[in-house]
Each structure stands twice: as C-alpha cells, then as structure tokens.
Specification:
The chain is of the alpha+beta class. It is built from 16 helices and 35 strands. Strands 13, 14, 15, 20, 23, 24, 31, 34 and 35 form a 9-stranded mixed β-sheet that branches. A hairpin with a 2-residue loop joins β14 and β15. The longest helix has 32 residues. The protein is globular and about 80 Å long. The protein starts with 5 loop residues before the first strand and ends with a strand.
Length: 698
C-alpha cells in the first residue's frame, strides 16, 4: 500500500485557531476550527490538529510539513513581555531611538504621547567608536569598554543586547567586533547587530528594528521549541515551518534568528490565499478582505502579487494613526488592519453616538451569544439578531448561539439609550462596522494608486462573507468572490508559500554615475547568501529563484519607491530601462512625474525563494448540483432595508452548490465555518473553482 503524506497549515487568530490538512498528490483536505487559547497558543494547535486527524483517520506520522503563523512577536511587544534588553549605540547617539524623527503624528493633540522605546534610557549606552558614511573608521571601537559593560549588564540581570552603530550598513566591522566582545564577556547574553538584522540606511528605524529582534528572541525560541516538542509527543514527524511577514516561509532556526520577521505572519497567509485563488479564477487584480473575530485585514492584490512594504509600525499609541508606533523595517505584505471583527464591542458614547470597536471581546469571553460570560454587545450579536446567522448551525452545529442573550445585550446597552428598537440598533451596529471597513479599504487602495472600482473583492474569514456584500457595494467593486471554506481559507496561504527570504544593502548612487562593478557585487553577495540559507533549509541547489528590486528617488527627496531590476550583470546599457521603470512606477503612484532632476538608488534588494509548492484542493461536495433550487434547505427572516425590513430569505447549503449554479438575492449561503449574505437582486453563480461570484456592477 502506498504511503500517504500530508501538509498542514495552522492560523492562530484573536478568536479562532484555524487548520487545514491537505493530502499531497490527491488534494483531498480536511479543515478544523477551535477557540484560540491566548495564554498558550500551542494548546489550541494541539487541540485542533488532534481533532482533525482523528476525524479524517490520518496518523500523525503521515504529516510531512506543518506551516504556522503566530502573533507571538506582536503580542510580546505590545504587552512588553520580552527580555530585559540593553542598547549599545555610537557615542552621542544613544537617544536617537527615543528622539525619532521629531514628527508629530497629530498636530493638534496637545496631550500627544510618543511610543516608548523597548529599551529605557538607563539601559542605553554610548560606545566609543565612529564609522563615517563612506565606511572609513574615524574612531576605533573600544572593545575593552564593551567587555566591561557586558559583564556589568549580565550581573544586573540584562538578558539581551542590541548593537546599532552609525553607518554599520556600509561597514559592519565595529558591530561584529562588539558582538564578539559581548560573547567573550557574557557568553549567555543574546546579541543582535543591526548590520545583520537590517543593513539599511536610516538610523532610527534600523535601531528600533534591531532592538525588537533581540527583545523577543528568547520568547519566540521558547515557544517554537515547546511547539516542536508538543508535535513530537503527538507523533508528528514532519518539518515545522513559520510564515514570514513577507509571505515566504522559513525554518524554525531562521525564525529564531530573525523573530522580528514574524510580526505579521498570520495576516500574510490570508493575502497569499487570496492571491492563489484569484490566479486560479482568472482574477490577478483583487481586493483581499479577511474579517475574523478581532480585526479585518484588507490587501491589494495587483498583477497576481500582493503589494509589499518595507516599513511597519507596532504598538501604536493610537491604533490607526501612522507615526504613533515603534517603526520596524522589515519586508511585509502591505495591508491595512481595521479594529472591526465579529467580536468588536458596540457602545453608546458620551455624546449619545453609536460606536463600534476597536475594543474586542476576543475568544474570552467572546460575544454575548457565545454564552461564555460576555456581557457587551458585539458585531456577531448584531448579525445574529438580524437573522444572518443560524444559532443552531454555527461552526456546523458544534457551538449553539444564544439569540435571547444577544437581543437583551443590544436592548440594554444600545437600543434603550438611543430610544430605538433592537432590530434598528442591530442594523446600526452592522452598518457602522461596514462603513468603517469600506472607508479604510477605499483610502488604502487610493493611497497606492489603485482604483477600488476595478478590483473585485475576495472575502474570507469567519465574518468576512457576512459583511462583504455591503462593503463591496459601498466601494463600487465590480464583483464579490467568496471561496468554499471561506472561514478557514487563510490556512491555504500557508501551504501556497515557498521558502523565501529578503535581503537588502544600502548603497547610494545616481543613475549615470554608478560604479556598476560594486552594484553587481552587492547583488551577487545577496544572491549567494540567499542560496546558502535556502539550501540549508532543504531547497535543492539550483532551484533557488531571485527577484531584484531597488529603492529609487529623485535626488533631494526624503523617501523612495521600489522599482524592479533586470537580471544578470548591470551596466550603462541598462540606464534607459531603469529610468523608464522608475518613471512608470512613479507615475502609477502619483499620476505625474517629478521635477527634471537626476534619479538615485538608495537600497538594493534581492528576494531569494524556492519553488512554489503545488496546491490543488480536490473539492468533493456530496450531492452537489448545478440546480440552485435543489440546494435550498429552508428559509428564515433576515433583515434587508431594500425590502423594508425582515424578509423570508432562502438558505442555500454551500456543500450542495456545484459549479454552474445560479440564483439571485436575497440569499443566505451557509457552510460550517462561515455564512455569505447576498442582498436583494444580486446575481450569483458558482465558477469552476467553486467560488461564489456575486455580480455587483450596474
């Protein structure tokens, strides 16, 4: 008998932990969903994996690979639960990480608070050394000073040290020597140097990122080693990989070395899943919309790839105000996170206005209707009161919902203070949540030079398909796509990602006056480093692929844009193509070109990646039919303002709808982990990939 082999993707969200198990070769799959265990996320992983394996009759030893995304790094930084960390900086620059860029993220807030650095001032130290911008040494490093300081820090209970010297991205020798000196004096001290973590220009961001990396390193390693041990105790013999914020996956050893790269690992998987489904369905341009229990994430998929940013903020003083958080310079799939999810709490503020979020009930205690002790009305409670959710079929019937409790909470906390009916209050909660997400999606797309009217919306997550129809209509999107298994679809992203890692080198030069020999050397060095890393992770020699980019700007500008670079040896013959590529990207972003001044390159980038895994899910829906009427399993009253209120609405069994099925709204399409709500008059059909496609263009 031929042995079976399976791949597993696990996504830990704020409310639920989702899982998919896919058999290699056949594409047969099994999904699972349990409440997240915030105190120890690995408990939820073990619970959902054990349940799914038993249900599908799969032996743990048959698992060849498990890919996991985690919010551990983000939580550790927000909760300030990392290691006690010190900073070694160039003499005179220890306060750069607190001074920042001296920008006020809110000009009119007289009580404005700046983010607190992870390292307090008394643990930031000036180190005698100085390297100039061109890499030459002005003042040699005092290694004896570093050794004495390291011994004192170790005696005082400091567990980690970040080293960030001026211009180390040009010449890392002093940082490397400082790391060696700390190692000699305090062998158990963890050390991260900026020229290793992020060898990139801009002192403040580079220092902040290096501190974050070593601050969470011990916590991440403990968690991952414990997860490895837990999987071994279960009998799982396959490899454990981690999703990176950039959309690639990495080994545990790489994740432990660069834990800061895991900051947005969970949301990245959702964007990759949307990309994979969009490509298969013939939609290279999409607006990915992932709404779970705590937040909603929106990402632009352009030309079959999610947009990538190289700057990120964490632990914002004001969650949605740019500049109010700690800057992190890492490659990350660019998305906007909105504090609106199924667990978002609704309230009436001091002015008598209805507000929704960003506070969330999370998984503990959860919405009132979960019956787990929640008392504050949430978006999920409102959806239930509006008839959008079946209280007896939530999670396929494994979790009954309390309609009476949801109505009472909305009546007491919202309807009574506002003097309106419970139904009107529930609709207000639902619509305010929709408007928050639609406005954020519109701004996010337009700021990136994308017209939301041209991008179909791809909706997933447990709550996404419930709200996506109204949001897509508000955006003027041409269509809405909801995949089969939308509630756990982000897990597919984990299994569609290749082993990959990003590299960067800062070296500034104007087009037309570049030292091409040096530029080519930088690119070759990064490609060689990528090959070594990926081959050590199991990628076959010669199977590594490279993508080159450069950060370019007009001379005198403060910021830059990313421009693709051609393969091979670069020389003056490439100048016209580089100028044209820069102008094309610039015009797409700003609808015009800049002044007639020279263009310069600031950073050189290489993405090294292994082969993309083949993932073709085999859908085997029992009794599926293209006759939509045969899939109707009943009807219930649901609220649609277009029809004047509650309307008897047909309920479709998602598992009985086959490609080719067509029907019109209003409609409720139910599956175990999610529900799609379609408004009156909308035309719906199932495409060849089993996606529900709702036409929205008038």
């Amino acid at each position: 008998m031929q042995s079976r082999s399976y791949r597993v993707g696990v996504d830990i969200g704020g409310t639920f932990t989702d899982l998919i198990i896919v058999e290699e070769g056949s594409g047969a799959f099994t999904v699972g969903k349990v409440l997240t265990t915030p105190d120890d996320p690995s408990q939820a992983i073990e619970a959902v994996l054990s349940e799914a394996l038993a249900r599908a009759g799969i032996a743990p030893a048959e698992i060849a690979q498990l890919v996991h995304g985690t919010t551990l790094v983000t939580n550790a930084m927000i909760e300030r639960k990392g290691a006690r960390t010190a900073l070694l900086a160039t003499a005179g620059f220890r306060d750069a990480v607190e001074i920042g860029r001296e920008n006020r993220y809110d000009l009119y807030d007289l009580l404005l608070e700046n983010p607190r650095p992870l390292v307090p001032r008394y643990l930031r130290f000036d180190v005698p050394e100085r390297t100039l911008a061109d890499g030459t040494v002005l003042t040699a490093l005092d290694e004896q000073y570093v050794e004495r300081l390291a011994r004192e820090l170790a005696a005082a209970g400091v567990e980690a040290v970040a080293v960030a010297f001026l211009h180390s991205f040009t010449n890392p020798a002093h940082e490397q020597a400082a790391r060696a000196a700390v190692g000699r004096a305090a062998p158990n001290m963890r050390v991260s140097i900026s020229s290793d973590v992020v060898p990139e220009i801009r002192e403040f961001e580079r220092t902040s990122t290096t501190i974050a990396n070593v601050y969470v390193q011990a916590r991440v390693e403990r968690y991952l080693r414990e997860l490895e041990a837990r999987l071994q105790r279960m009998g799982v013999g396959g490899n454990l990989f981690l999703m990176l914020s950039s959309g690639g996956i990495a080994t545990v050893d790489t994740a432990v070395r660069y834990p800061v790269r895991l900051l947005e690992s969970g949301p990245a998987a959702g964007a990759l899943a949307a990309t994979a489904y969009g490509q298969a369905a013939g939609h290279p341009h999409l607006l990915s919309f992932d709404m779970g229990g705590t937040t909603a994430k929106i990402c632009v998929i352009d030309q079959g790839r999610p947009l990538i940013a190289h700057e990120f903020e964490v632990d914002r003083m004001y969650r949605f105000k740019k500049g109010s958080g700690l800057p992190i310079t890492i490659p990350v799939i660019e998305m906007i996170e909105i504090g609106t999810g199924g667990g978002s709490i609704a309230r009436v503020d001091a002015l008598g206005l209805l507000k929704v979020g960003p506070d969330s009930s999370g998984s503990v205690p959860g919405p009132v209707c979960y019956g787990r002790g929640g008392s504050e009305p949430t978006v999920t409670d409102a959806d239930l009161v509006l008839g959008y959710l079946d209280p007896a079929y939530f999670l396929g019937g494994r979790m009954a919902l309390d309609v009476a409790g949801a109505r009472l909470a909305i009546s007491t906390r919202i309807a009574a203070p506002l003097g309106i009916s419970v139904e009107a209050a529930a609709w207000g909660i639902h619509q305010i949540a929709n408007e928050h997400m639609a406005n954020a999606a519109r701004v996010h797309a337009l700021e990136r030079g994308k017209d939301p009217h041209r991008f179909p919306m791809f909706a997933f997550g447990g709550a996404g398909p419930v709200h996506a129809y109204r949001i897509a209509r508000a955006l003027g999107a041409p269509a809405l796509l909801a995949p089969l298994g939308a509630g756990v679809i982000s897990t597919v992203g984990f299994l569609s990602a290749p082993l990959a890692f990003d590299f960067v080198r800062s070296w500034r030069g104007q087009l037309g006056a570049l030292d091409w020999a040096h530029a080519n050397t930088l690119l070759r060095e990064m490609e060689a480093e990528g090959a070594r890393l990926l081959e050590a992770s199991g990628v076959t020699a010669g199977a590594v692929r490279y993508r080159r980019e450069a950060d370019m700007r007009y001379v005198g500008q403060g910021h830059q844009i990313r421009v693709p670079l051609p393969d091979g040896e670069l020389n003056d013959a490439h100048l016209p193509a580089l100028q044209a590529a820069f102008e094309a990207v610039y015009r797409e972003l700003y609808e015009r070109l800049g002044p007639p001044v020279p263009v310069e390159i600031i950073n050189w980038r290489v993405v090294a990646s292994g082969p993309e895994p083949e993932l073709q899910l085999a859908v085997r829906a029992e009794n599926a039919t293209a006759e939509a009427g045969d899939a109707v399993k009943g009807a219930r009253p649901a609220y649609f303002p277009e029809t004047g209120g509650f309307t008897s609405t047909p309920i479709y069994d998602r598992y009985r709808l086959a490609p080719g099925a067509q029907f019109t709204g209003p409609a409720i399409i139910e599956e175990r982990e999610s529900t799609v709500i379609v408004g009156p008059g909308a035309r719906c059909q199932l495409d060849a990939q089993w996606n529900l496609v709702v036409e929205l263009a008038s």
